[in-house]
Amino acid sequence: MTFRVTARSAELFSGLVAPRVEPGAESSGSEWMRFLRDRVREKHTDATQVSTVYVPDPHGTVNAVVAVSVDSPGDVAVGDVFVSVPTGVFAVFVPSGTLADPIEDVWAQVDECVMSGSIFRAYKEEVEVVTNTGEVELFISIVL
Q: Bridge partners of 142?
């Protein structure tokens, strides 16, 4: 289990919503999320990566936006929603090779770090990035 801490600049995303999800390997690796990633890739054929932005609301519900990064609200595709991820501090996880599924691997590392007290999640927007070649990077919002 290794991670690095980084500051991430604000970013705007355009994509499709998966309502009321539990952030983690089970939801991220589900057929539903794979379906949404495939639809976003079909719509944005020039995109090299698709991100899943986990957005908590004040009621404790988390919605996921499976999306691509855009420069401005004017770049949001027809039928898509957009979400802005503010500047923040994140723990960044990449697959360690411990598990065969890279998405499961990064989420297992997060769970281990939280349980051991290595990181304290801020439970703000979190971003999972999956490239077209299958590389995964997970940005977990943390409290310093």
A: 121
